[in-house]
Amino acid sequence: MGIYTYICFLSALSILIGFITSKISARIQSTIAISAAAMVGSLFLLISGTFGWFSIENIATGIMQQIDFKSFLLNGILGFLLFAGALGIKLPILKDQKWEITVFALFSTLASTFIIGGLIYLAAQLIGLPIHFIYCVLFGSLISPTDPIAVLAIIKNLRAPKRLSMQVEGESLFNDGVGLVVFVTIFTVAFGGVEPTVGGIFELFIHEAVGGIIFGFILGLAAHLLISATDDGSMEILLTLTIPTAGFILANTLGVSGALAMVISGIMVGNWTRTKGFSEQSQRYLDHFWEMIDHFLNSLLFLLIGLALLLINVSWQSFILMLLAIPVCLFARYASLWIPYTLFTRFRTYNPYTLKIMTWGGLRGGLALAMALSIPAQTAMIGDTNLDVRDVILVMTYAVVMFSILVQGLTIEKMIQQAKKVDPNKEDYLRPTAETKARKNDDLNAYLSK
What is the per-residue pLDDT for 436? Predict the structure, then answer.
C-alpha cells in the first residue's frame, strides 16, 4: 500500500475518533481526544511488542516513516492551516493589538529561544551530557513559537473575550512565521556550515521574514484581482485554493517564509477581498468552506502527533531532559511575555488573566515536531556517547507538545471562564480619558434623575 492509502485510512480514523468523542462528551475538544487516543494506541503497540504479545509496532513505525511527518506538514498542509486561520483574523481588532502582537511575536519568541537554550544547556552539563550550545538554542527556536494550529483549534472553540482571543491567536500566527525563520537561520548555522556572524544571521533572517511578508502581499493582491474579476461563486472559492497550494510551494521554492506569506495573504483575503471582491453568495460560503478544510486537516494532524511517539528513542539522559524541558519552556514563555507585558500595562488596561492565559494557552503542536524531525539523523553525536542530537531534541519536543495539548489544552477553559467573569463585555481597552469619564458620569446622572 502507498502513502495515499495510509493517509486515507488515518483520515477516516481521525474523523471517527472525533465523532465518538462528540457523542461521549461535547466538552472535550476533538483535537485533544484524537491526540490522546493516538498516543495511547502508540503506547499499546510499543508495550505489546516489548512483551511479545504481537509485533506490529515495526509495521506502524514503518508507515509513520513513509508518511514523512515533516514534509507532510512543513511543505504541505501547513499552508492550508495558516491561511484558514488568518482568514478569521479581524483587521480592526488586529490593528488595536498591533504593538502587542508585534512585540510578542518578535521579542518574546527570540527571548524565549535563548532562555530555553541556556537553561537546557546548563541542565545537560549537570547530568554529564556535553551537548553543544547551538543545538540547545536550536531546540529553543523550534519550541518557543506557539503553534497557531493547536492554539486556533482549541482557543477559538472556547469563545474567549474577543480582544484577549485576538492577542493569543494573532501572536501565534505571527510568531509561528517568525519562529520558522529563526529555526531555519539557526539550523543553517548548525548544519549548513555557515559562519555564525551577526551580518550573516541578520541577512538570512531578513531574506526569510521580509521576503515572506512581501510575497504574501503579492499573493493576496493577485488573488483579490482575480476574484474581483468574476461573479462565479464557485470560481471565487476555488481561486482561494491557489494561495495555500501553488502560492505556498512557490514561496518555499524562492526561499522566503511560506508561513508568513500565508498569514499576510489570508488576512488580506479575509478582510479586504471578503467585502470588496466576493459576491454575496461567496461571502456566506467562504468561512464554511475553509472551516471544513481546517477541521479535517486538524483532525488528521493531531492523530499524527499522537502516533509520532512511534518515532522516538528514549535514553535515561534524554528522559531527564524531557522532564526538565516542560517547566523550562513554561518559565521561558512566562518570562518572555512578562517583560513587554509589564511595559504595555503603563499605557493600556488589560484583563487581569491576560498574562496567565497567554502563558498557559501558548500551546505547542505539530509544527514543533515537524521542525524536530527535520534535524538530520546521525550527523551530530553528543560527545563520546551514542546519543544523537536529533533523538534528544525529539524526545524533549514530544514531551512538551503532548503536555501542552493534553494538560494545558484541557485546563485552559477554566482560566478563560474566569476572564469572562472578571470583564465579560470588554477588556484590553485604552485607559479611560477625561472625556470618557465625563460621559460615564453624565450617563450615571441621567439614570439617577429618572
Answer: 43
Query: Reduced to 3 states, what is the DSSP secondary structure of residue 323?
Result: helix
Q: Note whether residue 38 is domain-resident.
A: no
Residue 270 is which amino acid?
A: G
Burial class (CB in 10 A: 0-12, 13-18, 19+), 280: exposed
Calculate the CA 398 to chain-centre distance.
Answer: 14
The number of residues in the chain equals 450
| Whole-angstrom distance, CA of residue 370 vs CA of residue 147 | 11
What the block records as the C-alpha cell of 102 is 508585534
Amino acid letter, residue 211: G
Q: Using the 8-state DSSP alphabet, how is residue 230 labeled?
A: -
Report d(CA 373, CA 71) in Å as an integer. Answer: 9
The DSSP symbol for 362 reads -
**Nearest-angstrom CA–CA distance, 137 and 328:** 13
Asked if residue 36 is part of any domain, the answer here is no
| Integer Cα distance of 7 and 385 in angstroms | 37
Nearest to 114 by CA among 319, 260, 328: 328
Per-residue pLDDT tens for 149-158? Answer: 666 666 666 6
Give 184-206 pLDDT, tens digit per residue: 888 887 777 656 666 666 777 78
Q: Which three cell numbers stand for residue 197?
A: 556572524
Domain count, the chain: 1
Contacts with 12 (C-beta within 8 Å, 6 or more apart), sequence order: none
Is residue 359 assigned to a domain? yes
Say which CATH number the domain at 321 has: 1.20.1530.20
- CB distance 46 to 308 below 8 Å: no
Q: Which pTM value belongs to this model?
A: 0.77
Could you tell me the residue range of the domain that residue 158 belongs to?
70-445
Q: Which three cell numbers stand for residue 38?
A: 493516538
